Amino acid sequence: MEATSRSSTDTVFSADAIEFSPDPLIFACGTYQIEKDETNATPAAEDGDGDAAEPTVSRFGRCLLYEVDQDGSNLREVQRFDGPAILDMKWSTERWNDHVTLAIADAKGHVQLHAWDDTEKRLKSTQTITCADEKTLCLSLDWSDRRGATGAEKLVVSISDGTVCTLGGESELSVTSSWAAHDFEPWIAAFDCWNPSTVWTGCEQPTFVNKRTYDESIRIFDRRKPLSPLLTHAAGGGLWRLKWHPTRPERLLAAAMHGGFCVVDFEGLSSEGITGSGKTSTVFNGHDSLAYGVDWSKGAGAVQGGRDLVASCSFYDHLVHVWDVENA
User: Fold this and answer.
1) Per-residue pLDDT tens for 15-24?
2) How far apart are CA 179 and CA 199, in angstroms?
3) Can you give the C-alpha Rg of the chain in angstroms?
4) 214-226 as b/e, with b when 16 or more CB fall inside 10 Å?
5) Cβ pair 46, 120 in contact under 8 A
6) Does position 268 have pLDDT exceeding 60, yes or no?
C-alpha cells in the first residue's frame, strides 16, 4: 500500500530529524545547514611549496516545533529557535526535573536540553552539556527511560571522533563516562530499553552491532547472540532511521534514504524469536530527496478509522510530510 500525504511544509534548512513528543499531536523537527566562507580559502602555491587553506565551514540549524490535528490534515508551526546544526533529537519518556524534555545532539559538541512547558505549550532551554570540542559533532543520542525504568545514566551520546559518552546526574546532567568505541563515526547509539545498563552503538565499519545499515537491509537480532541475525529483510535505499511502533512490537518504520519511507511487519516476532518473515506493508514516496527523519505519533490509532499518524522529513528538498498508516 502506498500512503499519501495529509499535510506538508517547507523547513527552509535541510531537515534530518523528526521526533513526536509524548503528546501525540506535537513533534519537533531538526535541521542541518552548511555554509562555507571562501574568503579565508587560499590556493596551494604553484611550486607546490605550501598547502591550500580550506574555506571555513559553519554548521547551523533550527529546531522547529509543530502541532498537527488528529487526522493530520492541519499542520502549524508553534515555535522555532536557531543554533548549531542538529544531528539527532529525542524526547524523554519520563519527566526530567518535572518536565518532559527534548534532548538535542548538535554540531558543536553539545547536548542541549529543552523542557516542555505544559501551560505555555513551548520549549524552554534548561541546560547545554559540553561533550566534545566545538569542531566535533554529537551524532546521536538516546534516553534510558524508553520503558519507564532508568538507571544512573540518563543519556548516551555518540560523537564524530569515535567516542561514546553517557550523561547522568540529579538536577543537572554531566558527562559520567566516556570511551573510545570506534575508529570511525558512530552514527547511532542507544540504550537497551529492557536493560538500561547496556548500550548499543554502531558505525559505518562497526565494532558493535547495529540493526541500521547502509547495505539496504534490516537485520533482527537476539541480543544474546548479537553477531548472527535472526532475519534479514531487504528494505532498499540505505537505512538511516528505524522506529518500532509504540504498541505493535512486530511493526517497524524505516527511513531508507534514497529508498523513501516504509513500514515493515515482521510476522511471528516475539521474545522467543521469529517464526515468519518481513513484509513491507506501506511505502511513502512523497519526498524527492534523502529520507532521513521519521517517527510515529505516540497516540497509536489516533486518526479516525484507527490509523496511525507518521511524520517524516527529507534533506535537500527540506520538506516535512504528515501521513498515516492503517493500524490493522
Assistant:
1) 999 999 999 9
2) 12
3) 20
4) eebbbbbbeeeee
5) no
6) yes
